[in-house]
Target: Amidohydrolase
Amino acid sequence: MIIDLHRHLWSIFERYAAVREIAARGLVGGVHQHAEAPVQDVGSRAAEIRAEMDKAGVDRSCLLLGDYGLRLGEGDLSIEAENRLATDLAREDPEHFIAFFGIDPRRPGAVELFRDALDAGARGLKLHPCSGYSPSDPVCRPLYALAGERGVPVAVHTGPMAAPLVSTYASPIHLDEPAADFPDTTFVILHAGQRAWFPLALDMARWKPNLYLELSLWQGLLLEDEARFVGRIGEIKSGVGLGRVVFGSDCPGVSSVMPLHAWVETFRRLPEIAQRHGVEVTPDEVDQMLGTTAASLMGLS
Model:
């Protein structure tokens, strides 16, 4: 089974007018972005994603939602409506989709909304601290407690983001206290800290067994420097083992850098690619990264 633990229905550029305006002016994250018009036909988008998944051989896609409303102004849909789209889609088509609930923990009623989403079938929580809060803020703690109680993972963005989002709290160091205080809650370090904070993310995972690494946005590193990409895979293997890695794409936002099928194929070919650079990756480790570990974190058979 291949599980994409980090997928979105729509990119941030499609969801927020403020970000579309930035994209229209030039580079975002070093990549030319298109200022797409809003897309609100979930049926058409779901069909596009299924076709993309079929081409790549992906079995299940986890739909993650970043809540940027308190930083950017509310999106084209309310955060409640966007979450409902994901949970409804996952309930209608559980063979393809898994819903994570995305919320800014500072919103009134965030815990109750998360509980309702879990009751509706959500299998995880997504936090995006670039909206201006720390994952170690006490306001997050009831969410972590509920995630641990219900046995679902908490996926947290790490790594810098373009303005008007802020990177202050996107360092993985802000997950250290939650991981220590909620040992029965699993935390997924999305993007594994990116380039700026990867060594820190890995070192924290060495000391906190409930921290897992997700490698989306590493597509650019692979294209720029395959040897360095493989070297980091080797560091993870020797540091915590590749069984602590989950596959994610961050599509559609990163699709222009590398399409989903090419990113999946990279992981499938890791034993061969890594060998060229003196690193051993076994087929069993590939299976763990591509789906076995994620299935275990979410309690899937």
